[in-house]
UniProtKB/TrEMBL annotation:
Domain of life where this protein originates: Bacteria
Protein name per its UniProtKB record: DUF1499 domain-containing protein
Pfam families tied to this protein: DUF1499 (PF07386)
Protein species of origin: Loktanella gaetbuli
Length: 153
């Protein structure tokens, strides 16, 4: 009888985990919620609850900078451009975690100021903590941009 109860509990937990995984992978996303231009007025890094924002001066034309992000996304299996375009000056990418498929959204824009500023905002859709994955992704993407981006002093 105890073995049957334990087995029932294990089955219930397993089904709950599968249901949650299916919800995370299959639930529709209101992309408009994430496709909003991030704002910054100077180079900076800002950490928020389940998000990270970085702003950097750039050494290339704004359209070239944004095209570099589109090209980068095309080389990654886990990242897809879900909204925006270079012409719109606003790109939003969805990146899914490998195991559970958690979606994170990264929005990229370049300000129209005299000295253009690249602004990247990455945030998780689910949860209260992203365990630093958004910050790590943004920093990785910035490093991959090489000399197109001026390092934060």
């Amino acid at each position: 009888m105890l073995k049957t109860a334990i087995l029932a509990i294990v089955v219930v937990i397993f089904v709950a985990v599968l249901a949650f995984a299916a919800y995370v992978r299959l639930s529709p996303t209101d992309v408009a919620r994430f496709h909003v231009a991030p704002a910054a007025t100077e180079p900076t890094d800002m950490t928020g609850e389940n998000s990270f924002t970085a702003a950097r001066f750039i050494t290339t034309a704004p359209q070239g900078m944004l095209q570099a992000f589109v090209t980068l996304s095309e080389t990654r299996d886990d990242t897809t451009l879900v909204a925006g375009s270079v012409a719109e000056n606003l790109l939003t990418f969805e990146t899914r975690s490998r195991l559970m498929g958690y979606p994170d959204y990264t929005t990229v824009t370049v300000t129209d100021d005299a000295e253009p500023l690249l602004v990247i905002h990455a945030q998780s859709r689910f949860g209260k903590s992203d365990m630093g994955v958004n910050q790590a992704r943004v920093r990785d993407w910035l490093s991959l941009m090489g000399n197109l981006v001026v390092p934060l002093s």
